[in-house]
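U., I forgot to send this yesterday:
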Amino acid sequence: MIEQMSAEGEETVSLVDVLQEDEELEQEASAVLAGSDSDQCSYPQGYVKRQALYACNTCTPKGGEAAGICLACSYKCHEGHDLFELYTKRNFRCDCGNSKFRDLQCKFFPEKEQVNSENKYSHNFFGVYCTCNRPYPDPEDQVEDEMIQCIVCEDWLHGRHLGCVVPDCVELQEMICEACMNLHPFLRTYAAHLAVPSAAAAEEELKQEEEQSSDEEKQGAEEATSSKAEVSDGPSCKRSRQETEGKCRLKELQAIGQKRVQSGAVFWPSAWRSKLCSCITCQKSSADAGVCFLLDELDTVLAYENKGKNSEQEQRGHDPLMSALDNLNRVQQLEIIHEYNDMKTELKDFLQRFAAEGKVVTPDDIRQFFEQQQSRKRRRFDSGQF
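Result:
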């Protein structure tokens, strides 16, 4: 492996490392789109479990009926339109070309039902978010703040409007906003035992655990001196499983009581859904409340993104470019480095123009960019500059 050296002679990263790092960043950026089909409208699939969605401000502006379109329709049917990117939504069927669009037919499936009655809409479909009901990015808001999506209503909220402190590593956690927590009070019971604690709460819990552990040690010592021989009923964890078999975990937690603040949004750690009660009563209650998806661990955005990343990797397969780099000499590698960096800069500038104008980048746009790159490269070669 030949590595590029800095002017001081210090070793820097190799070209392969650079390409691998960029590939990882590209996988992260494309995770949302890779889980959706960019070539075919998702309408025939019905209400898709989770997919990337857009709203067209050109066809369905504010004041009209809210509507959402799939990734493929955003490219093919709404090219050049003013689109709002909605990230992902669950259980949604593409509206493109139905009765909400007066002068537009879906180019994939012109014959669609008038409405998709099971779709759920919010102010997001008109380009505004959060409890402040503002657009994102907001030209009038100079405060740097991240937007976090509620997993229940799927609205996006500013961190400063959540009514709680945003914990570290928030990308690995799920958030339920205060409005949804209040709408589904049973979640407060789970939050007292499963949610990510604030720094102050975590410190208090640690102190209580240490005090409890100390008391248990003293009690154990006293019992040991009074009775040296005692018959065991078996491991406590096994006994606990036997005792709780067939019981409702939610009722058990309600009996324990709640200790945490009953306000503000709540952050939940990884795999918290697996700890929710799935007894028949709780399943029915969740379904009646419209939140049965919380019992499905594959409903998470993280699961959707991982599926997209895996699919992307399978489609790419083995990259011959990565293996071919080892066969290049130092001069050839340095030439490729410069070409690669130039292309990255030009591609970034190219994409920023679309972002500034609020336009969606289509496959044809990307194809045109690389055609221009090839044409420029041929001209340089013909003039002897390459």
